[in-house]
Design goal:
mainly alpha; two-stranded antiparallel sheet; about 35% helix; flat
Length: about 190
Amino acid sequence: MNPEISRRTALEGAAALAVPTAVASAPTVQAADGRRPALTADDGASGGVPATAPSEELAHYYRFQEIVEGRRMVYRSGQWRFEGSPVELDPKGIYPMVDDPDPTRLPEGSPERKAAEACDQTYTTILAVLQRVFDGHPGELRHAADLMTRLEKQAHQLAEMPRTTGGRTVLGPAFRLVETDRGADA
């Protein structure tokens, strides 16, 4: 049973889970007057977003929230607000991903299953590296970010693979935690 869920309801749910009040990176935006604002770290109490480098791109959870709000996020009057140019969601740009991209349902040894399992392995390694970061090894954060870039590429690769020959749906990342060798580091 798949209940009908509106696009707005789904996006609001994803954004509510993903958008924190403060993050550790700065989006690339411009102030209302067209200049790039001088940003400083903020604890989130004022509703601002802390910044470390104004050249960074908006994180994915802000992109989702821009879709929900229907506006780009901009820096105005000392705060980040969803008051920028309109954001339109183009349904043609959405991958027709299967409901449950479980790789165990794919033929053993197939290129599709290998790609899906590699994606799951990268995801698992990201979680392990992030755990090490939080356990007192902050120098490993760059490695985690590099793995996130790899995961993004793997997920896009899966989204280009049809689930079946001639089918209308494509594969996608399952984000499964998989068994790893203790010393393995992808």
